[in-house]
Amino acid sequence: MCKISILHIITTIDIGGAEKQLQLLSAQQSSLGRNVTVMPLKGRVELYDDFTNSQVAIDLSLFQLNPISQLRLVRRFIRMNQPSIIHAHLPRSELLVWAAFSIPFLRCQGRFVVSRHNAEAFVPKVPSLISSWVSRLVLKKTHAVIAISEAVREFLFRHQEVSKKQEVQVVYYGADLKQKRPPIKHKRDSENLTLKTVCLARFVEQKNHRLLIDAAESIKSEVSFKIDLFGEGPLKNEIATEILKRNLNPIFSIHSKVNFSFDKLAEYDILILPSRYEGFGLVLLEAMLAGIGIIASNTSAIPEVLGKECQGLFEPDSCQDLASKILRFSTNSELIDLKQYSSARLSRFNIIETERLIYSIYSS
């Protein structure tokens, strides 16, 4: 294989699914001798140390600048360093690279590759026709388009965010299967012990925290359980108020996402993900890696990741079905089966295979 240089441009390197997956991907690329640079555009660079500890270069020359300055500087970087691949992640980054490849006097060399991480409109809060037009305009300049799941790929074509003639290749997220699993810190060996569950999700409508609140309220007298919510987002205070209003604070605890680490997952029995849709759901792989059970809505990419036969899937937006799953897996025998299924499923998602497939796209 010839050695190639890769420039990843991403909107932020804050804690999030797309950002954490890029950290794993770029670390794997670097370990194979690729020359890898990551350029974030804004944010709090929460994953900076994770990238640099993996021997991945972080270039902050575009960071927090206005779009015109970013366009001028990214063009200068490409001209001076001549990366073989310019790989854009998330809409703002795609628009920046599209401009660098489109404006005549800024036209640059290299292959423009895009990864689509979300099953949602490219331009939010505008009419769908505008979003689809902008999306197709950007993708017209690309050499390759990658979707992180069949659900994302299907969304792109259904909402006309990609031309019918354009090829979109699916490459699933991968986990570092060599990563040492955290020691199990909570072993529920008695039916009388409290079931410990966790929900790791931004406080936005997509993640559907209210459904989890409704389900918990409906079974609070039937089983002893706790639900820890970790995340940030515009609905955080509203969700906290709703929990207090319903007197569910003995069950729910809300925490900042910065207080959560991968090792902490081992403190729980089950991850609950009640999302209305997911492009992939990297947290599902993290739960598998931690060896805990998973209860999640049977929608978009989630059954792709968990498998349609997963017993932890519940009908989307069904409070009754979610509540019944929590009750079912509060029994030890069912919980053990759910954890074993989760661990066995993980082998399908290896970051080594993810990198290999993406490298083949780069090289084709």
Q: Give the CATH level 1 class of the largest domain.
A: Alpha Beta
Q: Write the CATH homologous superfamily of the largest domain.
A: Glycogen Phosphorylase B
Spatial strand sequence of the major β-sheet: 3-2-1-4-5-6-7
The H/E string reads EHEHEHEHEHEHEEHEHEEHEHEHHH
Work out the helicity level.
25-40%
Summarize the main sheet.
Answer: 7 strands, parallel
Measured distance between first and last alpha carbons: 12 Å
Give me the count of strands: 13
**Which architecture name of the largest domain does CATH use?**
3-Layer(aba) Sandwich
Q: Which whole number gives the mean pLDDT?
A: 93
Classify the secondary structure makeup into a structural class: alpha/beta
The share of residues in extended strands comes to 15-25%
What does this structure look like?
By secondary structure, the chain is of the alpha/beta class. The chain has two domains: 5-174 and 349-363, Glycogen Phosphorylase B (Rossmann fold, 3-Layer(aba) Sandwich), CATH 3.40.50; 195-348, Glycogen Phosphorylase B (Rossmann fold), CATH 3.40.50.2000. Helix content is 39%, strand content 16%. The protein has 13 helices and 13 strands. Strands 3-2-1-4-5-6-7 form a seven-stranded parallel sheet, sandwiched between helices. The chain has a six-stranded parallel sheet with strand order 10-9-8-11-12-13. Strand 2, helix 2 (48-53) and strand 3 form a beta-alpha-beta unit. The longest helix is centred in the N-terminal third of the chain and has 15 residues, at 17-31. The model has no long low-confidence stretch (mean pLDDT 93).
